């Protein structure tokens, strides 16, 4: 895995580097996350900003320590699956059997505080409709729509409905976003060209401000030659074409060549769209690669592995390209060297190539990763494997009536996206509240400024503290040191 990551993770950096001047200076794309990061970094260099930064770091450290300590405390009561605070039947045992419960996860609380209201309410509605309505109705057809003796994890049983219905909505949403982004990108490019012609025909723009001139001068002064970037991409492509088939024999050299020919175009689209809207659609392009390569290779020749490996290849190229352009925007606004930003991205990518397989190995050895009933079900792993299976086998792999339900959900996903765009045009805002957002909601009611200043730090500490505890917990499990207590909840009927 480490060798594969080193082969495919750097090409995206070289594919987009020659377009940095076009994206930042010519098109003047905003890259909202990169811009926000730059303004935050610039504010640290003011007296008030430095004082605020100290308070935010203190808040983050306190929430980090509290989250880590509580995760350590929870560990003592989780001797087996279904034990401990992570399986607390808040709404009763029947609801718990349908996966409705509170798990006391500081990570989810932190994520809920950071995510927008629309994301939280969408996930809540999806959970209620699927686990509360759809799956119980389909499970009632057991023995009619699918065989009764299938394992719970079989994609030809109830798990197939869960996976393929979710895939249908993800593909519908992804297809809409890709088409929408291509239309928006094309319109923006056309508008840029029209504005440029008008500028040539009319008077010249007023002189740029002194700060803007300094930014442009710094951005153009220390940069990597375009020839080096193009040569780097070609060399990495050749290296991948030669070496990747030894790691994944199901992928032939011509499959990889096609990916490397298509990837720069998709990387540009993704980076441009990210600059306009802050949406990174790398996962959607990866899904297209999964289905396309799986169907091309075929089930009998290892289409599932080929599709998943091709997805990793495509996503690495496309996602790192938009990440680098975000960094270029941050560097442009903070007067940082573009070459330094590029080198930093390369170093960070190399660190990820080493640390990611190591962390995966630790969790894989310590926990049953991928088990739908375990602590780490890895739902996206099931989704992506399901997409590869769909591409390799076709619709014949679906359980009875799954195709009809999936088509309806695919259309529903597109319809909801269209409705969302219409509401945004009419300046409507869809709002909703979950438990995680209730904390922020009441905090803002009491002190809005304090909540806006400190809730990202508080949420980040909650996420990092519990997540970091996963590493020592995994090491303890590998050493044979398991939690001493299993705290379970039973119905009164079973006790008597």
From TrEMBL:
It is a multi-pass membrane protein. Residues 1-15 form the signal peptide. The chain crosses the membrane at residues 72-96, 117-138, 158-183, 228-247, 253-272, 342-363. Keywords: Membrane, Signal, Transmembrane, Transmembrane helix, Transport. It is found in: Membrane. The keyword Transmembrane applies. One of its GO terms (cellular component) is membrane. One of its GO terms (molecular function) is oligopeptide transmembrane transporter activity. InterPro entries: OPT (IPR004813), YSL-like (IPR045035). Pfam families: OPT (PF03169). Belongs to the YSL (TC 2.A.67.2) family. PANTHER family: METAL-NICOTIANAMINE TRANSPORTER YSL7 (PTHR31645:SF20), OLIGOPEPTIDE TRANSPORTER YGL114W-RELATED (PTHR31645). This is Metal-nicotianamine transporter YSL7.
């Amino acid at each position: 895995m480490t060798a594969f990551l080193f082969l495919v993770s750097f090409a995206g950096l070289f594919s987009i580097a020659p377009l940095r001047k076009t994206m930042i200076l010519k098109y003047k794309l905003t890259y909202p996350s990169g811009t926000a990061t730059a303004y935050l970094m610039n504010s640290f260099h003011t007296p008030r900003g430095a004082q605020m930064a100290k308070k935010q770091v203190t808040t983050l450290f306190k929430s980090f320590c509290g989250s880590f300590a509580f995760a350590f405390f929870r560990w003592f009561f989780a001797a087996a699956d279904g034990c401990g605070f992570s399986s607390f039947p808040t709404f009763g045992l029947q609801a718990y059997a349908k996966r409705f419960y509170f798990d006391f996860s500081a990570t989810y609380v932190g994520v809920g505080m950071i995510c927008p209201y629309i994301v939280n309410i969408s996930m809540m509605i999806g959970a209620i409709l699927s686990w509360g309505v759809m799956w119980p109705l389909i499970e009632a057809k057991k023995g009619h729509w699918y065989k009764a003796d299938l394992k719970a994890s079989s994609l030809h049983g109830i798990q197939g409905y869960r996976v393929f219905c979710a895939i249908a909505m993800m593909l519908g949403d992804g297809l809409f976003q890709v088409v929408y982004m291509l239309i928006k990108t094309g319109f923006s490019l056309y508008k840029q060209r029209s504005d440029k012609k008008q500028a040539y025909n009319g008077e010249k723009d007023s002189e740029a401000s002194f700060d803007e001139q300094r930014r442009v001068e710094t951005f153009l002064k220390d940069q990597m030659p375009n020839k080096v970037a193009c040569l780097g991409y070609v060399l990495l492509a050749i290296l991948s074409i030669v070496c990747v088939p030894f790691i994944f024999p199901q992928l032939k050299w011509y499959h990889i060549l096609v990916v490397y020919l298509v990837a720069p175009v998709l990387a540009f689209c993704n980076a441009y769209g990210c600059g306009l809207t802050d949406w990174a659609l790398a996962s959607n392009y990866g899904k297209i690669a999964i289905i396309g390569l799986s169907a091309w290779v075929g089930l009998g020749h290892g289409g599932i592995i080929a599709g998943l490996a091709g997805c990793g290849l495509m996503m690495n190229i496309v996602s790192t390209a938009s990440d680098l352009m975000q960094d270029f925007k941050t560097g442009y606004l903070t007067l940082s060297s573009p070459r330094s930003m590029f080198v930093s991205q390369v170093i960070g990518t190399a660190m990820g190539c080493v640390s990611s397989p190591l962390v995966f190995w630790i969790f894989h050895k310590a926990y049953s990763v991928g088990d739908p009933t375990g602590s780490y079900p890895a739902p996206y792993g099931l989704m992506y494997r399901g997409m590869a299976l769909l591409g390799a086998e076709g619709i014949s792999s679906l359980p009875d009536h799954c195709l009809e339900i999936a088509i309806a959900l695919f259309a529903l996903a597109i319809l909801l996206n269209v409705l969302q765009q219409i509401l945004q045009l009419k300046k409507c805002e869809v709002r909703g509240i979950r438990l995680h957002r209730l904390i922020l909601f009441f905090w803002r009611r009491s002190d809005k400024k304090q909540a806006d200043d400190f809730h990202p730090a508080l949420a980040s500490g909650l996420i990092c503290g519990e997540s970091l505890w996963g590493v020592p917990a995994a090491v303890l499990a590998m050493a044979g040191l398991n939690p001493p207590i299993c705290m379970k909840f039973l119905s009164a009927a079973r006790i008597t």
